[in-house]
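#lab-general

N.A. 3:47 PM
ok so I finally got the sequence cleaned up, no stray characters, all 297 residues accounted for. can someone with queue access submit it? mine expired

B.Y. 3:52 PM
send it over

N.A. 3:53 PM
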Amino acid sequence: MLKLKIEEAQNLERIDKLLSELLEFSRSKVQAMIKDGSILVNEITVKANYKVKINDEITVEEMVEREIELQPEDIDIDIVYQDDDLLIVNKDYDLVVHPGAGNPSGTLVNALLYHVKDFKAIKGEIRPGIVHRIDKETSGLLVVAKTDKALADLSDQMKNKTVTRKYIALVEGVIPHNLGKINAPIGRDPKNRQRMSVTEKGKTSVTNFKVIKRYAKHTLIECVLETGRTHQIRVHLAYIDHPVVGDPKYGRRKTETTYGQFLHAKTLGFIHPATKEYIEFDSDLPEFFKEFLDTLE
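B.Y. 4:20 PM
back already:
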């Protein structure tokens, strides 16, 4: 993985032209990498004609094999809202959002192609309409754009940090204070590139939380994101020694459940790209989550 930070001399250059020169790739290859999500700006997708700005952070990952052909699959998904521009999905804890290495099929994208008749994927694109991701082990709400215009608008809202995102997490240990703010930079773990960690060279990352309920050895909290780094909540909570219960990557012990980690994207709000009105959605905790909480009473 390669990370670049835009300097003043590069301001307002087209990203495909700039990266073609910097990486010594053909412009068509850079455009293909942008389309399949291998190139992100500030951790979101952009178009090839995006004009970079000072301090933009560009991430270049290895290009996903383009032989992956998206196929519609009859996978049960919970679509809680849908109109001509977008849809809201309440994702199960064990569903991967889009195809990638090790997951060529059986993803949310494959399900959308089957269930949403006016959801059009560009040939060769493996993340059509995906504005943001939720980890496989995390359940809850995410928005999917159905048009290029909606995708650009929603991606801008994500970048500008105007999207409301609230998560419910069950964590190890008892948090003594009712409110907290974790402000710690997150980047790739220098000792393990498959993990993220709090590191001096990381990006600014801020997670706010409040306690909902305390149990004998656990705490139920609500987390509100100010930034949207990879695995942010999981990394931050592990950093303060209160990892998410059941977290397979950052947790400190196994739990008595065979389900995913106890992290749920409960609330999602944003300005509708067409109506320009603020809309917000809320989802219940999964049954396994509620049942596990009952055992803690």
